[in-house]
Design goal:
This protein is mostly helical and 489 residues long.
Length: 489
């Protein structure tokens, strides 16, 4: 039977390392360090690295329940599947719209960032182009890779991710081995420093740097031995990202010494590169400036793949047109969803271009800020869904994994939402006007998606976001439809 129209992604196409490449690349280690690092230091001063550690702990608590649930449910639906399984179909329907909004905002905003970085890089080599040119070229490249086999994307992301991580690890090693500018110390993790300045803003930007790691479950249907691979990849991704950001920001703080906060405020653009030049050398900084462009490209590819699989899952479930829920006969990829995603991205990106929007101050800042709040909302809902799901299935998980850790994670993530809304002007640069209403798009997306599900039900086309799903406890299920029925029952 042809894979076209089968609704099945390529099985055993990617292992733990491949999934980790996807999600760590989505966190954009180099791009996030250069972009969010200066803001965190200017807000929090010496204690900024401590806030990255706090964010890592909160998300690790979230990951405990998330990974535990992934041992029982495997679906390309990610957040929506988990929320539907724990809180019911209607909550799942609403979360689908929020997920699409969240990741589309992140993707579109990052195209603006890529366009600016790439145009600046080309200008250094005498090639003058507007930001729109590299942005469109990147969109076409991402679209092609998203259409092809998932393991090809994983290989591309793996190479780009390793390069950007290595350049920063070299910086970390040199700074630490030389004792920084004022000697080695752990002042960054002292409670008095962590809570100094405006720690809420630092924590918010730290959370932003982790966005994307939760996509581990989306690749469950394409993973080898998913009930082991996905949980393992989730833990590995969170721990690696957490250690990397904490270590690197600590090294940056040591490099600048007691003047880190003022240096970040005075020169946010050159905050990291100046320190790198001083400790590692100008050649390393030139390489870093090239890798930051490839870093953002890696994020674009990772988010495109995430969105393609969301659309594929929702098409297969009946919330979006069923044609999106089919796979390519050769690549077994969600090719139609990938093409539709590319077209939608081009249309919205084109609208911003025609409107003359600033690619960084508006396209990037506004949409990434909105996307961050939407992702935190989804993560909080999933943490609650994990608790409800396992309370209904007594004995299916330990008390720590299914109650304590998820609830602590939900409290931490909920605090992140409050901070994001309270500091939306800092996160986005919006100080008033219609743009300040952007957060209201989150409930609007949820309501529209919920209404779509209700209309489908009235037309006797029930939407099953928990199908097709493989429940590890139901090993007798032989087909997607059988597995889906068992999961619903």
């Amino acid at each position: 039977m042809s894979a076209e129209g089968s609704g099945q992604l390529k099985r055993s196409a990617v292992g733990t390392s491949g999934i980790v490449f996807f999600v760590v690349a989505a966190a954009a280690p180099l791009g996030a360090t250069l972009g969010a690092g200066p803001v965190a230091f200017s807000a929090n001063g010496t204690g900024a690295p401590g806030m990255y550690l706090v964010a890592a702990v909160v998300l690790l608590l979230f990951a405990v329940g998330y990974a535990t649930m992934s041992r029982h449910l495997t679906s390309a639906g990610g957040f929506t599947t988990y929320i539907a399984a724990g809180l019911g179909d209607r909550a799942g329907h609403a979360s689908a719209g929020i997920a699409l909004l969240a990741y589309n905002c992140m993707l579109l905003g990052l195209f603006g960032q890529f366009g600016v970085f790439a145009a600046d890089l080309l200008a250094r080599y005498g090639v003058e182009v507007t930001w729109q040119v590299p942005a469109v070229v990147a969109l076409l490249a991402v679209g092609v890779l998203g259409y092809l086999e998932v393991n090809l994307s994983a290989k591309v992301l793996g190479v780009l991710m390793i390069a950007e991580v290595l350049i920063l690890l070299v910086f970390d090693a040199v700074v630490i081995s030389r004792g920084g500018s004022d000697g080695l110390n752990v002042d960054a993790f002292a409670p008095s420093n962590v809570l100094s300045g405006t720690p809420g803003i630092a924590l918010l930007f730290a959370f932003t740097c982790f966005v994307g790691f939760e996509a581990t479950t989306i690749y469950g249907e394409e993973a080898r031995d998913p009930h082991r691979t996905v949980p393992r990849a989730t833990y590995v991704a969170v721990i690696l990202i957490g250690i990397f950001y904490t270590l690197t920001t600590w090294a940056i703080g040591l490099a600048h010494g007691p003047d880190a906060q003022s240096a970040a405020a005075e020169d946010p653009v050159g905050f990291v590169t100046t320190a790198n030049t001083a400790f590692v050398g100008a050649l390393s900084t030139e390489v870093m400036e090239i890798l930051v462009v490839t870093s953002v490209f890696a994020v674009l590819l990772a988010f495109h793949n995430t969105l393609s699989r969301y659309m594929f899952s929702l098409g297969r479930a009946g919330l979006l047109p069923p044609a999106l829920g089919s796979t390519h006969h050769r690549f077994h990829s969600p090719h139609r969803a990938s093409v539709v995603q590319s077209v939608l991205t081009l249309a919205v990106l084109g609208a911003f271009m025609v409107a003359g929007a600033d690619p960084f101050a508006q396209l990037y800042s506004w949409l990434v800020g909105l996307g961050t709040i939407a992702v935190l909302t989804l993560q909080t809902a999933v943490a609650v869904a994990v608790v409800v799901y396992f309370r209904r299935r007594a004995g299916r998980g330990g008390f720590w994994q299914t109650m304590v850790a998820p609830m602590l994670g939900a409290v931490g993530l909920g605090s992140g939402i409050v901070l994001a809304l309270a500091n939306f002007d800092v996160l986005t640069g919006i100080t008033g006007g219609p743009a300040s209403l952007l957060p209201w798009l989150i409930p609007v997306a949820g309501v529209l998606s919920l209404a779509t599900g209700m209309v489908a039900s009235l037309r006797r086309r029930p939407v099953r976001l928990v199908a097709p799903v493989v429940d590890s406890a139901d090993s007798t299920a032989k087909t997607p439809s059988q597995a889906a029925q068992k999961a619903v029952d």
